[in-house]
Specification:
With 205 residues, the chain is mainly alpha-helical. It has one domain. It has a two-stranded antiparallel sheet with strand order 1-2. A hairpin with a 2-residue loop joins strand 1 and strand 2. Helix 2 packs parallel to helix 5. The longest helix is centred in the C-terminal third of the chain and has 34 residues.
Length: 205
């Protein structure tokens, strides 16, 4: 496999996970008194891939993948809304459940996309800046620091955009911090995998 082929497959995986995230994000689960979105399942992997894109291919390529993910995610949402609007057949009795899963309010859509664009772009930019300053050294620091700021900014934009005025600000802030730090902890645990993947991809032709 070549670097260009890996980029193709990795970018496709990245975009699929983003679309899946948008579909499952509405379900929450409780962790130590905090309500976390099911997006926790996909976003840590998305940010690891973001690190691989930046470290191997550079910030410009990572930014292109981020915007491609944004466009495809938007396309998926538009398809969902069309499917919700189209009248169901007489035998289709699951319309309320279908709408509950696939209907997206403008506020939720703006908060989700805003968080994604800010967080993913900041994650890639910090990764690139640290790489320019320190070269190939301190890979773990680059991955963890970039994810820390990327995840916290993503969570802040989404949660405050989605829930400000609905939930107390201190509750939103607690959710942002706990959710963001949990994702960073996930990346720390998965760093050996990230390091191996980056090393293998750099060796490709």
């Amino acid at each position: 496999m070549t670097k260009s082929k890996f980029l193709f497959y990795a970018a496709a995986t990245y975009c699929v996970l983003l679309i899946a995230n948008n579909t499952i994000a509405g379900k929450t689960f409780d962790v130590f008194g905090f309500s976390w979105s099911s997006a926790f399942v996909t976003f840590p992997v998305v940010y690891i891939l973001n690190d691989v894109f930046t470290e191997v291919y550079g910030f410009k390529t990572a930014r292109k993948v981020v915007f491609m993910g944004f466009i495809l995610n938007l396309a998926a949402v538009l398809v969902y809304q069309i499917a919700v609007i189209v009248p169901g057949s007489a035998h289709f009795t699951a319309q309320p459940a279908f709408e509950a899963v696939f209907s997206t309010t403008p506020r939720a859509l703006a908060a989700s996309f805003g968080g994604y664009l800010v967080g993913s772009t900041l994650n890639a930019k910090i990764m690139q800046v640290m790489h320019d300053r320190h070269g190939e050294r301190h890979l773990m620091a680059r991955c963890v620091v970039s994810t820390l700021f990327g995840e916290l900014s993503d969570a802040a934009v989404f949660n405050f955009g989605m829930f400000l005025g609905v939930m107390p600000a201190q509750v939103i802030l607690a959710t942002v911090v706990s959710f963001g730090l949990a994702k960073v902890a996930y990346e720390v645990v998965m760093f050996p995998v990230t390091k191996v993947v980056i090393g293998k991809v750099k060796q490709l032709d």
